[in-house]
Write a structure and sequence with these properties.
Elements (H helix, E strand, L loop, with lengths): L6 H23 E3 L16 H23 L7 H24 L8 E3 L1 H21 L5 H25 L7 H18 L16 H23 L6 H28 L7 H15 L10 H12 L1
Parallel strand pairs: 1-2
Length: 308
C-alpha cells in the first residue's frame, strides 16, 4: 500500500490518538457482563450463552475480516489496500461499535460486554465495510477512520430507532446492508471528480483479482446463515433463520450464473456479476429469515427477483 507522504504523520497520530481515547472510554464505561449466562437467551437454563453463541461469533468474525477483505480485491491495483484497510477499519470499528451501541443500553452507567455485544460490534463494522466498496481507491486511511466514526455512530442510532419502532430486521438487511450501501454511495458522490467521468485505467479487474474476490465471496456465502441467525432469538427463530438463508443462498447461485450468462453477449460467465449477485441473496434474506408462517419457497422466489 502506497500513500502520499503527508500521510506519514497524519495517519499515525490519528490512529494512536483514537486508540488512546478508546482505551480511556473503555476504562471508564465498560465492564464485563458477569450476569448469569443461563438466562432468557438460552433454550435451557443449563446452557451457557457465551459458549453457545461463540461459534456463530467466529463465523461472523471470518466474514468481517476475511470475506469482506478479499471481496474488495476485485480492483487490479488495490488488492493490498482492500485487505489491509479492511483490517484497519474492522479492528477500529468493533471497538467504536461497542461504545456507540452500548450507550443505548447502559446498566448502572456502564456498558456490559458479552458475546451478543461482540457480535453486534462486528455487525456495526459491516456497515463501513459495505460503504468501503463504493470508495475503494478514492480514500486514504485517515478518511476511512473518520468515515468509520461517523457511520458507526449513525448506525447505532439507526439500529436503536429500528428496535424502538419494533421493526423486524433479524439479519440486519435494513440497518446494515441498505444503510451501508446508501452511505457509501453518498460518500462516493461527495468524493466524485468530474475529470474521471470517462473512467480510470485502474478501474477494472484482472484474472487474479477476480480470483481473490471469489475467495471472499465463498467465505461470505458459506457463513451467511450464521450472520443472519447470530442475534435471532434462540430456538425456532434461530433455526428458521439458518434454514431459510441456507436454501435461499443455494437458489441464488443458480440464478446468478444463469443471468450472468444471459446478459453476456457471448454467453460467458461474468465472475464479478456472479460474486455480488450471490452476496445479495444473503442480504435480502435477512428480513425474511425468521418468518415462521412462510414456506421456504417464498425466500427462494424473493432472492430470484433480487438476483435478476
Amino acid at each position: 500500500m502506497s500513500f502520499s507522504t503527508n500521510m506519514r504523520f497524519k495517519f499515525p497520530i490519528l490512529a494512536i490518538v483514537l486508540q488512546i481515547v478508546i482505551i480511556i472510554l473503555f476504562g471508564v464505561f465498560v465492564k464485563y457482563d458477569t450476569h448469569d449466562h443461563s438466562g432468557p437467551h438460552n433454550s435451557t437454563h443449563e446452557d451457557n450463552t457465551f459458549l453457545n453463541l461463540y461459534p456463530l461469533f467466529q463465523d461472523v468474525h471470518v466474514m468481517i475480516f476475511v470475506g469482506f477483505g478479499f471481496l474488495m480485491t476485485f480492483l487490479k491495483r488495490y488488492g493490498f489496500s482492500s485487505v489491509g484497510i479492511n483490517l484497519l477499519i474492522a479492528a477500529f470499528g468493533l471497538q467504536w461499535g461497542i461504545l456507540m451501541q452500548g450507550l443505548w443500553h447502559l446498566h448502572g452507567g456502564k456498558i456490559e460486554i458479552g458475546i451478543l455485544k461482540m457480535i453486534n460490534a462486528d455487525f456495526s463494522t459491516a456497515t463501513v465495510l459495505i460503504s468501503f466498496g463504493a470508495v475503494l481507491g478514492k480514500t486514504s486511511p485517515v478518511q476511512m477512520l473518520l468515515m468509520a466514526i461517523i457511520e458507526i455512530t449513525i448506525f447505532a442510532c439507526n439500529e436503536h430507532l429500528a428496535g424502538y419502532l419494533g421493526a423486524s430486521d433479524t439479519g440486519a438487511s435494513m440497518t446494515i446492508h441498505a444503510f451501508g450501501a446508501y452511505f457509501g454511495l453518498a460518500a462516493a458522490a461527495v468524493l466524485y471528480r468530474p475529470g474521471l467521468k470517462n473512467g480510470h485505467e485502474n478501474e477494472g479487474s484482472v484474472y487474479h483479482s477476480d480470483l481473490f474476490a471469489m475467495i471472499g465471496t465463498l467465505f461470505l456465502w458459506m457463513f451467511w446463515p450464521s450472520f443472519n441467525s447470530a442475534i435471532a432469538d434462540p430456538g425456532l427463530n434461530q433455526e428458521m433463520a439458518i434454514v431459510n438463508t441456507y436454501f435461499s443462498l443455494a437458489a441464488c447461485v443458480l440464478t446468478a450464473f444463469a443471468i450472468s450468462s444471459l446478459v453476456e453477449h457471448k454467453g460467458k460467465l461474468d465472475m464479478m456479476f456472479s460474486n455480488y449477485a450471490r452476496c445479495c441473496s444473503g442480504c435480502n434474506t435477512g428480513d425474511l429469515c425468521c418468518w415462521r408462517s412462510s414456506h421456504r419457497f417464498i425466500s427462494k422466489v424473493t432472492n430470484l427477483g433480487t438476483t435478476t
